[in-house]
Amino acid sequence: MLLGGTLLLSSCNDKPEVQPATDNYLAIYPNPATTQAYIEVRNQNTGLFTLKVFDTKGKLLLNRNGNQGQNQFTVPLENEPKGKYLVILKSDKSNITKTLIKL
User: Fold this and answer.
1) Quick one: the chain helix, strand, coil %, rounded to 5?
2) Residue 36: inside a domain, yes or no?
3) pLDDT(29) > 90
4) Is residue 29 exposed (0-12), middle (13-18) or buried (19+ Cβ within 10 Å)?
């Protein structure tokens, strides 16, 4: 880049963040949530998966099993305290962990 008659060279030595290849997709919306949240799971492999949602004390709020395809689950939050919740998707090929926030 030429700036005021001076040549400035810049480069980026940072490596881009690369996500491991997975056959599963996990989306949580809305996030943050108030009364309920929706979790969308897309499982491209033929194996089964398990979806679990835990509160900060380790209480299991949701435990669902699914198989190949697209699945949607509802997490009722109206009677739960504000805070962070752990969403875990496990299959035979991968594990995905995300955070759900309740306001």
Assistant:
1) 0, 55, 45
2) yes
3) yes
4) exposed
Q: Quick check: is 38 in a domain?
A: yes
Encoded tokens for 20: 């491991």
Residue type (1 letter), 58: G
**More confident site: 96 or 7:** 96
Residue-number span of the structural domain to which 28 is assigned: 23-102
Quote the pLDDT of residue 1.
46
- Per the structure, how many domains does the chain have? 1
CA 69, 46, 20, 100 torsion-angle sign: positive
Cα–Cα nearest to 66, from 92, 85, 84: 92
Measure CA of the first residue to CA of the last residue in the chain; give whole Å.
46
pLDDT of residue 46: 62
